[in-house]
Structures are given as C-alpha cells and as structure tokens.
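JOB MANIFEST
job_type = single_chain_structure
chain_count = 1
residues = 420
[input]
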Amino acid sequence: MGEPASGREQLLLQVFAYHFPPSSESGAARPGRLARYLPEHGIACRVVAHPAPGAADSALVSFVPPEDASGPWRMAHALARAAHRAAPYNERLPWLPAALQRAFRQQRTRPADAVLSTYPPLAAHLAGLVFHLRSGVPWIADFRDPLAGNPFRNRRWARRYDLWLERLILKHAAAVLVTNDSAAAMLRARHPRAEAKIHVLWNGFDPQAPALAAEPALQPRRLVHAGTLYGPRRPCGLLRALALLMSQGRMDASRWRVEFVGPHEQETFADCASALDQLRRAGMVDIRGGLRPKAELEQAMREASILLLLDLTGEAESAQVPAKLFDYIRSGQPILAWSPKGSPTRAVLERSGVPHLAFEPGEADDLVAARLAPWLEAPPAPAQPSAWFLETFDGARQAAWLAGLVRRLVRPEERPAGLV
C-alpha cells in the first residue's frame, strides 16, 4: 500500500470501497491505486471493502461480508435487507451495517482524520456519510460514475430518488470528486451552490504495473472486447457492419475472429441477432460470458489486433469514460470506439497517441463498414502512448494531488490564501 513519507505527519484516511483489489471488477482499480500511492504523501489508508476471490485481510485492509454484522448491527442488517428489496436499484445495502461496524471498531483504536467513499455502489457513499456524521471528520465523496442523470439508472420513477441522494451527498461532503470535466460541469449545473466542492480526478493507471505487451495473433486476427457489456453498451453496430462486409464479399471471415470476453446481459445482442447468427455460422464470433479471471482478460487483450471500446449510454451525450480505456491505450494497440462527438472518451483518444477509429452512436451500418474495411485489410501497428497521456493519467501523480486535498480539508489553516 505504499511507503510512508518521511519527515511529515501522517494522516489516516478511512476508505469505504465496495470493490477493492484483488477484485477483478473495474471499480476496484481506482481505490486500489489511491491506497497504494497516498502513503507516499503522508496519507495512510484504512480500507473497508467487500470480499473478493483471493482477498485476505491485512493491517489496513478489511474485507467484510454483509453477514458479519453482529450485536445491535444485526437489526440494522435486517433493515438494510428490507431497504435493498424496496430500492429501485441494487445499491448493495446489506453490506452497509457490517462495513460501518468494522470501521467504527477500528476508529476506537486509531481515529481517522478524514473519510473517502467511492461510488458505485451507493452503500459506500452511505457508509461515508454515516461515518462523517458520527465522527465529525471531513468526507470526500468520489463518483466514478454519475448518480443523478446516469443513463444506466434509467427508471423514470426513480429520478427524484437519485436527485435527493445527490443533494444529500453534496450537502454533507467536504469535497466531491468526478472523473472528467463533462461530469463536473453537469454536477455544477445541478448544484451551483456546491460548485467549490466539486473537483475532477480522472481515472488513470498504476505506473508501477507493467502495460500489456501487444502480441497480436495472426491466424486469425482478433478483434477483442474485454470486460462487461451492459445496458446500452451493445456491439450491434460493429456486428451488423461485419455481417454486411462479409455478405458483400469484402471481408474474408477466416482471417478474423471477434471475441467478447466477460459478462453480458440477455439483451446485449438482441438488436443484431441475425448478424450475430450469420457471423457465428462463419466461425467469426467467440462469446465467453460470465466473470472471467483477470489473466484471461489480459491474454485476450494481448493477442488482439484491434480492441473494441463501447462508450454508449443510450443518449446523445456521454459524461463517462470506460475504465478499460486507460489499459487499452497503455497497450498501444489500435482502438475501435463507439462514442459521441465531444465526449471525454473521444478527447482522451484524440490525444492518446495510439491509432483509433471512432464512430457515432447509431451511425449507419454501410458507413461503418466503409470506414472499417481498410482496418480489417491492414490493421494499424501498435504505437507508444503520448507523453501527455502518460503524465496526465499517472496514478501516482493523481494520489499526490488527492493528498494535498485531504491535508487542506483536515488542516484548513494550512490552505494558501485564495485557494478553495
């Protein structure tokens, strides 16, 4: 979890992160990076997380199952289970009492100076809120995804619920983190009085973790999506374009295989069932659903000639950046992306230094096919990411910035004049 900074008072940050390494969930990477590098800047992290395969408790990391709630917290667990059944989304509420019980028990031994929670799921933010209210320490609420206005939280009757939760969080949090400028602008527009609390901390990468070394397979070449497909993130534009190219004799099906490695929903391929069937009969598609080991995901990415990125929200805009984008770019491999014009994802791709081909959501199949055909005939060679990318999204640099924020919140008297 990083070496402590020498010659500086070390503060303790209580972290609630439902997903945390060694979890293979994409949401585990961000808190994992922060917990690794914050100690280098005088901020120790005490983490409470949900169990994951291969996880083991350590001095500063506790993996707490929901069933661990005991004593008076058992009643809270029963209430959380009832609230879970009534909630419009899976907020992981049954984990909340056990997580708080563990954190408050540890708080008696060594009090934390501040608390950080990272969403999703909502249970982590609720834990941060309760911990803040009971201990009085400043709370940093980290939004890896939006809450209100999130296209994946699309039940119309639940919009007021999301807005109420968002207002509650912004009222009590000392600082709110979002992952890109577009998300920050939308949040500030909804909560102008909280504008000074809202900060951008991009997702990024661990500079000490080696980038995947590209070893593209040649017989057949691979076009790979590694990770979860859910909601509007559907690959139908690609599959219909491939089926069109094959039916027109403009693509040799034996030269390519499209791989989807990771969980998907029943509806993921519903809008392109005919194209999928056509490609499967030609032996072009390999779907390996369900949670896959990290090693399998990385191997699939390593062997790809082209990586597929779907920044699709079902709307004309996107204020989210798929976490896999940073791993994709570090590999240097060509990226085929569906993302709206002006999106944060496109902004990163355009300055990344790696070959990429971006399409609009809903772009006509024949136009996609026409632009895609040259890439299938001769895929671009991998390229080194740009210096801008490597500096901007370096997880160690990001932790240094966050350490400064924590210190300003804990020690307001140390804040330079004019600094919010």
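[summary]
Residues 416-420 have pLDDT under 50 and may be disordered.
Residues 217 and 303 are 5 Å apart (CA to CA).
exit_status = 0
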